[in-house]
Amino acid sequence: MSDFLELARQFGPLSAAVLFFLWQGWRRENRMQKRIDSLEKEHKNVILPIVTDCSKVIAENTAVMSRLEKILEGHHQVAREALNRVMRREVSEES
Fold this sequence. Notes:
mainly alpha, 97% helix
């Protein structure tokens, strides 16, 4: 603080105020840079692996759902054919 007062005496209060605000901005920039580095590290170490894992799980679930859909379509066709056979028997018995 005494350095600040010495600058104010030598160069005037306006120069000292400009230097103070430059110093304050420099400190703020340093704090923000540390915060940005922290967030980028978190993104790289935490969020990115989670997204990667979720993408793998979604792909696996999609593959399983496709297989289930094919199985159900096969069962649906078998059930429809069985129903048609039953209906044909009933019609032929009624005749």
